[in-house]
Design a protein that fits this description.
This protein is mainly alpha-helical. About 55% of the residues lie in helices and about 10% in strands. It has one domain. A three-stranded antiparallel beta sheet has the order 1-3-2. It is elongated and about 65 Å long.
């Protein structure tokens, strides 16, 4: 399996508190933010770089596995986590931290793709936090 992408909210005490006190309000917005965050990663993860001249014919399986990956979301008291992985066993050697020498500099790693898109991920969770705060405020009204 390819290196999974995990999202961990740090410094999100307000969101965690909302998740504990108002799970029916917080969970849907956190789920939406996580799905948005992962959706923004799938295309770049599934995109193949140009291929050097060779007789090797790519199967496309790695890209298809990213495109069909389903995020795992776990809500537990005082914690929330999301995870997205790729079922292809050779994924870590192509896009992971264990990248094989022939892929270095050609294929972006999962970590590189996430780092570039981190501001978008952060915005998705900030927007969720704002929606959750507004909903709680209306409820407390």
């Amino acid at each position: 399996m390819s290196d999974p992408i995990s999202i961990e909210l740090k410094g999100a005490d307000e969101l965690i508190r909302a998740l504990n006190e108002y799970p029916s309000i917080a969970e849907p917005d956190l789920r939406t933010a996580t799905e948005q965050a992962y959706a923004g990663l799938v295309d770049p993860l599934a995109t193949y770089p140009s291929q050097a001249p060779t007789n090797y014919v790519r199967s496309g399986n790695l890209g298809r596995a990213w495109s069909s990956a389903i995020p795992e979301l776990v809500f537990q008291r005082s914690t929330f986590s999301g995870r997205l992985g790729n079922a292809m066993p050779y994924g870590p050697y192509v896009q992971g931290d264990e990248q094989a020498y022939m892929h270095v500099g050609r294929w972006q790693t999962v970590r590189e793709i996430v780092r570039v898109r981190e501001p978008n991920i952060q915005r998705a969770y900030e927007a969720a936090g704002e929606r959750i705060a507004a909903a709680i405020s209306r409820r407390a009204g």
